[in-house]
Specification:
81% of the residues lie in helices and 0% in strands. It is mostly helical.
């Protein structure tokens, strides 16, 4: 009798305490946390961007269109966004391979290679630009070899692509690496035991797992490359209509005291980058939702 009483009463005494522990939050309440989040984002992000738009509104519509659609500006758009897009795609492929090697293999000097991945993070952008220019100029170590086969890198759009690929690599590697570390290798072993080939295992087991991380790395790499200035300005050559990037053109406008024209071009870059990142984030969310639906 007493044992049954204990078995009935004990859950009633413990249950509320457990539920209260689960409901307790470490940080303050939702209202205070949300208020601080909105205040901080407004102070750091929204107010500066609002100032950018307000300065642009000092132009008339015709003046705005002329400022952002001149042939020289359009050429800089094509180079900046095109090189950033191609560089991000290159980093998705080779950055994914680097992340895979660092996670799945053991080899001498692994920690050194892992540290080298973060070098574009720590290296000042001006130093990176000077180093790349020295290497890829026609009398540089790599540039002299490429010049023998008729390939010129420094002071060309190809040099811009090299610089943007260099600074964007860590974003892909550091995004994909934790996902590969947490991936369940038992699924790969199960696929192999069921007769799946290596390609089938990669296509149907590994790739869907890392795809959201790859999309995130692509978005971060693209966003970083689209606004890059320091490492590109040295190797680009900055020739109008050829190798002039949009951030450099904005700086040129500022040096000419054309603040409204500079903010107009910056606004276009901001809007295009935001739309591209929003599209990628929506695609990433759809991919995760689809993956969860397939697992259930």
């Amino acid at each position: 009798m007493s044992a049954s009483t204990v078995s009935i009463v004990a859950p009633q005494a413990v249950g509320p305490a457990q539920s209260a522990g689960r409901g307790k939050r470490v940080l303050p309440g939702f209202g205070l946390s949300l208020g601080f989040t909105i205040f901080y984002l407004a102070l750091i992000v929204l107010i500066p961007l609002s100032a950018l738009f307000l300065k642009t509104f000092t132009l008339t519509w015709d003046g705005f269109v002329d400022a952002v659609t001149s042939p020289r500006v359009m050429a800089s758009y094509r180079l900046t966004f095109g090189a950033a897009l191609i560089g991000a795609l290159i980093n998705v492929v080779f950055g994914g391979i680097v992340a895979w090697v660092l996670v799945r293999y053991r080899f001498p000097g692994k920690r050194i290679v892992d540290a080298l991945v973060d070098l574009p993070f720590a290296l000042p952008t001006a130093v990176a630009g000077i180093a790349l220019t020295t290497l890829y100029s026609q009398n540089g170590w790599i540039g002299s070899l490429l010049a023998k086969v008729g390939i010129k890198v420094a002071f060309t759009p190809l040099g811009v692509l090299v610089a943007l690929t260099f600074i964007g690599l860590p974003f892909v590697v550091r995004t994909v690496q934790p996902v590969l570390e947490d991936a369940e290798r038992e699924l790969e072993e199960a696929a192999a035991s069921l007769g799946a080939s290596r390609w089938q295992t990669f296509t149907y087991v590994i790739f869907p797992t890392v795809l959201p991380a790859l999309l995130t790395g692509f978005a971060l790499s693209f966003a970083r490359a689209a606004g890059e200035y320091g490492s590109v300005v040295f190797i680009a050559g900055n020739m109008p209509m050829v190798s002039e990037i949009t951030p450099l053109f904005i700086v040129t406008k500022l040096e000419q005291y054309d603040y409204a024209g500079a903010t107009a071009i910056a606004t276009v870059m901001l809007v295009v980058s935001f739309l591209l990142l929003l599209t990628i984030n929506l695609l990433q969310a759809w991919t995760r939702k689809r993956g969860r639906a397939e697992r259930t």
